[in-house]
Design goal:
Length: 358
């Protein structure tokens, strides 16, 4: 359930209500791909103010498998995370694992990226996997071509995405009765940079009826201006009383602009990935390439105003040293810093919207 509390020129304040807690919007979801964060603990995440976690259906399906997770009491019990969880559908792997998969109207035949074993995932399978995992929010299975793919490819992807969305909704309704569970189900708007296809996809998904709507296939090759153009065209079409999710976007300035245009939810691996490569985000909005020689003798705190206590305590010179020698604690410090900054950014956006006159 979603309660829209306020809509302003700066964005929307709302609250998604789930059995594992309520989530104020707008919010960012840390990505725990296989049920864990690389280098930091869930207690760390809670300390930084995370309200929800994203886990990856494809990877959890491969290992340990949804039946093992279900037998453990569901994903919350299995990984010991008590707040809400969103699972993606595996659709993005259709895009990212393009060299080891083939697509038909029934679904996607993969090869296991670890051992080459055959695997099939379609709308029925993806919906069943996510129900067994026990997430609070689940996603329709979709086809996600690159945003810059030719129009002919986008047409095929939209048609498949809509066909699969209907099948996901039917299976979801059946499983709600069978399993006595009721996660929220989101549809995903595809269409690349073709605005007419995006509009068609959005309108037909709305006609099917979902608990929320995501925009997929962005931040995968297009320019920022092109991404904004899609948001400007599609956000006004989406129902006011349903949450809106921009998938895979994590740059702070992009999030701010997307919130202004009406987006409520975000996820991205970039804060953690950039941290592990020595790109440190600061509270003031700048980025430091902390491996550079200039930081070898910089004995000031990593970020004096950081939401992460370790960054207020440790020195830039120390973090530079740890990352240069490959010490894992350096990655942990950088990950805590970047995740803390993006979660604080979301809280600040919530406050700005709350303080705005309608």
């Amino acid at each position: 359930m979603f309660d829209l509390k306020k809509s302003t020129s700066c964005g929307r304040n709302g609250e998604i209500q789930t059995p594992h807690g309520n989530i104020p919007t707008p919010f960012f979801m840390p990505v725990a791909t296989a049920g864990a964060m690389k280098g930091i603990t869930f207690d760390d995440l809670l300390g930084l103010g995370a309200d929800i976690l994203l886990c990856n259906t494809y990877h959890l399906h491969l290992s340990p498998g949804e039946n093992i997770v279900s037998d453990a009491g569901g994903l919350h019990s299995f990984i010991r995370w008590e707040k809400p969880i969103l699972t993606d559908s595996g659709g993005f792997q259709v895009f990212s694992l393009e060299n080891i998969r083939s697509i038909t109207d029934e679904g996607v035949a993969f090869k296991d990226h670890r051992n080459g074993n055959p695997l099939f995932l379609g709308p029925i399978e993806a919906t069943n996997v996510q129900h067994k995992l026990g997430a609070d929010i689940i996603m329709c299975f979709d086809e996600c071509p690159p945003s810059t793919a030719p129009r002919a490819d986008q047409i095929k992807a939209v048609d498949r995405t809509l066909k699969w969305a209907k099948q996901c909704k039917e299976e979801h309704e059946r499983l709600k009765v069978e399993r006595k569970s009721s996660p929220m189900l989101f549809g995903i708007v595809q269409g690349g940079l073709e605005l007419d296809l995006r509009k068609k996809c959005a309108e037909e998904l709305i006609a099917i009826g979902f608990d929320g709507y995501a925009l997929g296939g962005l931040a995968v090759g297009e320019t920022e201006d092109e991404m904004v153009a899609v948001l400007q065209a599609i956000c006004p079409l989406l129902p006011e009383n349903k949450p809106r999710y921009l998938m895979g976007v994590g740059e702070l300035h992009q999030i701010r602009e997307a919130v202004r245009l009406g987006i409520d939810m975000f996820d991205c691996v970039s804060p953690m990935r950039e941290a592990r490569h020595g790109n440190v985000w600061l509270s003031e909005g700048k980025k430091l390439r902390i491996r550079r020689q200039e930081f070898q003798n910089d004995h000031t705190p990593i970020d004096q105003d950081s939401p992460a206590p370790t960054s207020r305590k440790h020195l830039k010179s120390y973090l530079h040293h740890l990352l240069r020698i490959g010490e894992r604690y350096g990655e942990t410090l950088a990950c805590l810093q970047n995740m803390g900054v993006i979660l604080k950014h979301m809280r600040n956006l919530q406050k700005e919207i709350s303080s705005q006159k309608i």
